[in-house]
Design goal:
Blueprint (H helix, E strand, L loop, with lengths): L1 H20 L1 H27 L6 H9 L3 H6 L4
Helix pairs in contact: 1-2
Length: about 80
């Protein structure tokens, strides 16, 4: 529920930017926002799971379960 609410907010944010500044600006800002979010999310997951710097495919598989999209896509059940 929280992940879906967050995704809905993200979509509404994009539409608001598009309406005010146009599609090109919305895409540019969305890409910049996602780049920053992805890095922050990865670091937060790595820290929360106490994964070592080079945890290999096992670490990646474990971390991917905790991405916000895992809840949205049904990976978490």
């Amino acid at each position: 529920m929280f992940a879906k609410n967050w995704l809905a907010h993200d979509g509404r944010w994009f539409l608001a930017v598009e309406q005010k500044y146009g599609m090109d600006a919305a895409i540019e800002l969305d890409a910049a926002s996602w780049e920053r979010f992805a890095a922050a999310e990865a670091n937060r997951i790595k820290k929360g799971l106490q994964l070592p710097e080079k945890s290999g495919l096992q670490g990646l598989a474990k971390a991917l379960q905790y991405k916000i999209y895992a809840a949205i896509s049904g990976v978490l059940g």
